[in-house]
Write the structure tokens for this entry.
Amino acid sequence: MLESFIPALALAFSPEVILYVAIGVFMGITLGAIPGLSGDMAIAILLPVVFFLEPAAALGLLTGIYKGGMFGGSISAISFGVPGTPGSAATAIDGYQAKLKGYPNKALMTALYSSVIGDSTSDLVLIFLALPLAIVALTFGPVEFFALYAFSLLLISALTKGKVAKGVAMAALGVLLAMIGRDPMGGTLRLTFGIPELAGGLALIPVLVGIFAVSELIIQLSKAWMERASRIMEDTRQKAESLLGDYDASKDKLTMREFTATLKATGIGTTMGTLIGALPGAGSSLAAFISYGLAQRFSRKGDEFGKGSLEGVAAAEAGNSATSGSTLIPLFAFGIPGSATAALFGAAFILMGMTPGPRLIYDHTEVIYALFLILIYANFINLGLSQFLLPFYSKIAMIKSRILLPIVCVLAILGTFAAGNSVIDVWVLLFAGLLGVVLRMYNFPLAPLILGFIVAPGAERALRQALLIGRGEWTHLLSSPIAIGLYTVAAIMILTFTFVLRDKK
Amino acid sequence: MPKPQFDKLLTRQDFYTGLVTIGVGVIGLLDIAYGNWRPGPGLGPHAFPQLAYITLLCAGAVIIIEALFGKSDAKPDSLRAVLSTGIALVAIGMGMFWAIGKLGFMVSVSITLIGASFLLTRNPLHHWPTTIVVPVVATGVIWLLFVQLINVPLPRGMLF
Amino acid sequence: MFHTITSRKGAAATAVAAMMAIAPTLGAASPLGSDPIRLVIPFGPGGGSDITARVLSATAPEFCGPRIDVVSMSGAAGLEAVNFVRNAEPNGHTLLVTDYGPIVTSGFVDDVDWSHEDWQPIMNFTEWLPTVYTRPDHEIQTIDDWVEYATENPDTLTFGHASPLGLVHLPLILFESETGLQNIHVPTSGGGETRSLIMGGHMDLGMTLPASIAAEVASGELTALGVFSEERSPVLPDTPTFRESGYDVVLPAWLMIFGTSDVPSDVVEHLQDCFIEALASPTAVAMSDRVNAGIEPLNAEDSNTLYMATVESIGNILRDIGEIE
């Protein structure tokens, strides 16, 4: 193996490959920052390019885009409260509050560092622990997946801050939105209200960008439109004004102490992100929300979550980014693409004449070693380039809202259209925005809705598959030690939380 | 232990929020009981929606009970203003999309952006660099990104 | 081995330039304008149809004239792509690349405003042969094992098959109605999930297309039981067909390029000729081999025969199981 390491080193660090990685990271950050557009989409567009590039250069380009896109989404999440990618929705919760409180730079830096830490760890896990983790991932069948999804729905209580009833209602609404369209198990239509365009269901990007981003944009637009400000808005308005007026850049620098204070949250995010990323089908937004919920529970300052906590930013962003390496584990170990990103990397391998799977590393040792090296050093390019670019992007965020808001709206609409080439997605985006506004006005928390929406399809599939395989016996759901373990942890968590809550009262 | 305040219940915002939540759950459950739901493998397609409706019903009840004990969010302020902005955005967004197919990308997007800046700016002609120049430049950048680089299959218009 | 094609890299095919894909020079005597041709696929990017279509989009421009874009529209379960092509101007610039699911099956079961006759095939890329597989340590290792076990223990074997009534489900239905066997059908979210459930021991059998398991079958990590086709699959030469084992169940899935039926015949002919010519070029052959696409193009007429035959056989199956009248 070692004899292929030296050529791999030369390959990975050739100036050409480094340049492609840098181009990729730059494109990823920029596209990721536009709501609706994500690294995945850029990779899909660039797939044909791999026909014409050396494998190492092509993989460098794609890796760069992917990593840049992961972080880029959090730039707009923090700057405008408008998540640029699905994975950064959880980052928006605290990141945007931090910006309103006058420390956007601290939040952005926290996001960047936790993103790079999570990503690097996940890459190391991919390189050194791919096989054992993949074997663990394979033990996850329908029974175990259902337990995992049930467990993650429990975290709703953590995402609601004392509004549990409203949070649970929102999760149920998220589940219902996810049920729209063709029943994936039986093929019949449900909840489409006779609209044939809804047969394919609601896509994640329009719902997520609509609920979180468009609703935020609408509220900010109405604020810009009317000088008469309401109670909530006056609040944010004053903050925004004070930010523009007395924003003191010299005070808005992340100190070493603040950074170390977020490390626990980053650790939780990294662990959860890496584990959830390795499971086929779970995804980065789920990892981000679960990390956020857990970090809040384990934080000493859990009360500050949702009010601009840097720990919240760190947990969400680390959880989101830590899926990036481990999502490739099932692909490398068994040739199973576990996520949209992994499927695109799989397609890129196929286009280069390399079959994804366990043989990959033996048949193409040099290229794969080079890819491993690229995965690691791309993080540092991401770190450097982002630190260089952030001041410019922050300046964009400071442009007067009356000019910037319409542009962001147009970008969100076109970006969402581009993600699925679908006019229906634009409709869904705008109506989800309206729904989001109504829910915000009546103080319903939005995060549980998204969690319900993300979890429901997988949970339903897993439950129904488990019952089919178990011939309708509900006891089959308890047939696996992993599932029993997850349910036990969940039960313990509920008990602790209720007692902790009772103590506080 | 606070006492239930029946007399104030009708003044609490969350009493109505809870009622709407329960209403959605009830309508959904009625739909499942009497609507046209076909059976499917493993529990059928109605099982998960049914669970969600029951959850809504219970959550709505809890919201009302909490309101009874004085825990309620305040009425939303300037709801009408925000909602009308929202509806305007939906209309403008769809209008822009429709216009791209008729007039072309550059014309539709720049008109939308200029129009929006005029709506949001006092004395827009006085601020022409930000209300006219910036939107036109932004349209150019957006066109480069979406039409030239990403090659989005937008409908083509008569102009450009 | 992957340097055969990358020699063109020298031509400064930087990322951005390749993205811009500046329109190449027009081919001679083309009835097409200079606008790009869009190959619309009703699936997400990265799958087999996407990769196969990209082989064509990378090689055909110099034969056909305009540049060729692959556009993925997976909305409304693929029907959005179908409607997009249906509503586009019938000038041969907007074409649908699809297997039979979104066009034949949907034409029967979905509420659509077109019929099967509203489409004309321009070319067929390839035929995919649905293959039944399992893990190597499972007690069922051959078609006969399966039939024997399922006869003795009806309704106990779990069979993963992606979406219901899809390419890798209808053959199972057909096989069961021919043999009277009963298995538990477990829908999954796709080939990847089916495979991980089988490898993890959660399910007994599954169905997929050969290219996705060829490497694992060769290295002994998966066992392919049989193929629902007339002849063996070139990438699975040791796997028998069901017909060889005495079960006359054949339901291959094709990947065709369609235009609407009102595309003028000279345009269809031009496209058919230049596509086939492009796919015969050394670059395309090398690419096709590299991605295991097994491209063996059929012209418009032969594709139409195949299309009509599929419409009939899928119609029969769906009527059999009471899905349509």
User: Anything to note?
Assistant: Confidence is low (pLDDT under 50) at residues 228-234 of chain A. The radius of gyration of chain A is 22 Å. Strands of chain A lie at 181-182, 189-190. DSSP finds 23 helices and two strands in chain A.
